[in-house]
Amino acid sequence: GENVEQHPSTLSVQEGDSAVIKCTYSDSASNYFPWYKQELGKRPQLIIDIRSNVGEKKDQRIAVTLNKTAKHFSLHITETQPEDSAVYFCAARRNNDMRFGAGTRLTVKP
Amino acid sequence: SAVISQKPSRDICQRGTSLTIQCQVDSQVTMMFWYRQQPGQSLTLIATANQGSEATYESGFVIDKFPISRPNLTFSTLTVSNMSPEDSSIYLCSVWKGLNTEAFFGQGTRLTVV
Fold first, then answer.
1. What is the SS3 assignment for B48?
2. What are phi and psi of A65, to 5 degrees?
3. How far apart are alpha carbons A100 and B1 in whole angstroms?
4. Is residue B111 a contact partner of residue B19, using CB atoms and an 8 Å limit?
5. What 3-state DSSP class applies to A99?
6. What's residue B67's pLDDT?
7. What tens digit of pLDDT does each residue of A31-80 get?
8. Do B99 and A103 touch (CB under 8 A)?
9. In whole angstroms, how large is the CA radius of gyration of chain A?
């Protein structure tokens, strides 16, 4: 089955800096790659996603890139703000099977 | 989008007892799943709740311990049976409205077994 690895496990940046989180997946048939943000005590919520027919997608300060050949995808957050502090999960999906990465705890220091 | 109501939000249970968690969606959904999330950890899939048939369990999870029902396209339950302290965790239901759509999550059930 699919295996998703996520790095780093923790990331601390200064407010205004950029943050990058990387994930790799094992199943070349995976075709949907979402990113979820989970604040403390809250449910995971989708912040951006990308499908396998697209190489990059951007939504304001958030962008995701996908390299199908290398089987990795990355989340980029620019101009970070303290409210970006949370745990971020990547996932890879093939048909009915979606697997999550281990998560990255992002801390944005004011 | 999908609005998911998951109950209870938290509970403290005695070991050896069972707890049933409910997940109600405001519209019909294609897929419903149950996850477990240990504090500070990732989301581990327990099973896929299949409407009208037995759930599909992931390796390490069995029906006797985690019986699941899904009587229709908007509702599912997960029971944690014969609980032990190791079952203390957050349990989340998740739904997909279609096969190529995003996953939505319930607010989770924080279970503590004493």
1. strand
2. -120, 150
3. 21
4. yes
5. strand
6. 97
7. 999 999 999 999 999 999 999 888 999 999 999 999 999 999 999 999 99
8. no
9. 13
A74 interface with B at CB cutoff 8 Å: no
Q: Do B102 and A100 touch (CB under 8 A)?
A: no
Residue in A94, A95, A91, A93 with CA at minimum distance from that of residue A103: A91
Measured in angstroms, the CA of B25 and the nearest CA of chain A are apart by: 15
Per-residue pLDDT reduced to its tens digit, B64-83: 999 999 999 999 999 999 99
Nearest to A104 by CA among A78, A79, A81, A76: A76
Residue B92, H or E segment: strand B89-96
Cα gap B88→A47, rounded to integer Å = 28
A83 to chain B nearest CA, in Å?
Answer: 19
pLDDT level of residue B39 (50, 70, 90 thresholds): confident
- End-to-end CA gap in chain B: 37
The residue with tokens 């029971």 is B79
